[in-house]
Amino acid sequence: MKLFDVYPINDIVVTRAKGSYLWDEAGQQYLDMYGGHAVISIGHTHPHFVSRITSQLNQLAFYSNSVRIPLQQELADKLGKVSGKEDYQLFLCNSGAEANENALKLASFHTGRKKIIAFSKSFHGRTSLAVAATDNPALIAPVNQTDHVVFLPFNDEAALSDYFTAHGKEVAAVIIEGIQGVGGINIAQDAFQQKIRSLCTEYQSVFIADSVQCGYGRTGLFFSHDHAGVQADIYSMAKGMGNGFPVAGILIAPFLKAKHGMLGTTFGGNHLACAAALAVLEIIEEEKLMKNAKTMGEFLMSRLKKIEGLQNIRGKGLMIGFDVEGELRDLRKNLLNHQHVFTGEAKPNTIRLLPSMALRKKEAEEFLESIEEEINNMVSSPKMVHPA
Ligand SMILES: Cc1ncc(COP(=O)(O)O)c(C=O)c1O
Q: What is the pTM of this model?
C-alpha cells in the first residue's frame, strides 16, 4: 500500500532525539529550532516525560470517558495553576483542529448564533468549521464552504467595530491567534485584542483565543493573549501540551455551562495523554521554562537583528519569524542541508523559529553561528565561482 502523498518531505529519517538535538539513521546530528512544528515544548525525550508515560503505560493506557479518570482532574488542577486560569473548565480532546472545532461549536451552542469572525492569514485547522475559519481557500473543500464565517482584516479595529455595529447580534464568536503561526508570525496588537474583548462583552459573543501554536508558555507567558492583558472566554491548546504525545484541549470560562452530551470524544483525556500532559506541566514549572523562553527569545531576537540580510525580525519568546529575500531565499533549505539545523517556514519567505522552551544559551549561540556561516557562504559563493 502506498502512503497518501500529501506532505512535501525532507529526505531525512530521524531515529533518535534528546533535548534540542535530533539524529538521523546515519548518526548525523541536527539542531532542532523547529520543535516538529512548535510541538516539542520541554525538549525531546526528557527523562521525567519518558518515565511518567512509561509507568502509566504499565498501569493502564486507556479506558473510556464512561468512567471517572482522576488524572483528568489532576491535569485540570495543574493547568489551572500554571496558566493562572483556575476558575476555567477543561475539556480534553486530541488535536488543535478538534480543539477549535469544539470551541466554535460551544460558542454557537451558548449564543444560539451562527456567525464566526476570523481574520486574514488565520490558520485554525482542517476539520470542517476550523478549516472554514482558515484564510486559505486551497484548504477549504466545497462541502466546508460556508457563509457563516466572515474574514476581517487582521489588526483593523475600525473594520471590526463596523462589522459588530452592523451584525453584532448574529456573532457567535471571534477567533484569533495571539501570534499567527502558519500566517507568518504576525502579532495581534494589544489594542486590537482589547477591542475584541470589549465588543464580545458588549454583544455577548464568545472570544476564542487560538493558542494551539502560540500558547503553552512559548511566548514567555502561558497564553500569548496574556501579553495584551485580556481574558478570552475559550482558549484552545494543542501542540506543546503533550511534547509530541497527541493531546489537546480547551479552557472554558465559568459562564459557559456544560450539558451532558454537548461535546465528546473517544480518545480525549485518556490516561496516557493525561500522564504526558502532566509531565509537560511539571517540567515547565520545575525548570521555569516560560522564563527561559522569554530570556532565550530576547537573546535570539537581539542577535538576529544584528545579522545583515535578515528582515523584519519579530515575535515573542521562542516564537520568532524573519524574512529572507534575493540571494538568501534558500537560507532555510541550506540551514538544513549544510548546517544541519531544522527551522520552520511560512510562505512566501518567512523563516520560523519554534524550538523547545528548554533551549539552552549555547544551543542558541550554535544556531546564530550556523546562520551567520550559511549567510556568508550564500553571499560570497558567486565570487568564488567567478574569481576576479
Ligand atoms: C494556530 C493553529 N491552530 C490550529 C492548528 C491545527 O492543529 P492540528 O494540526 O493539531 O489539528 C494549528 C496547526 O498548525 C495552528 O497553528
A: 0.97
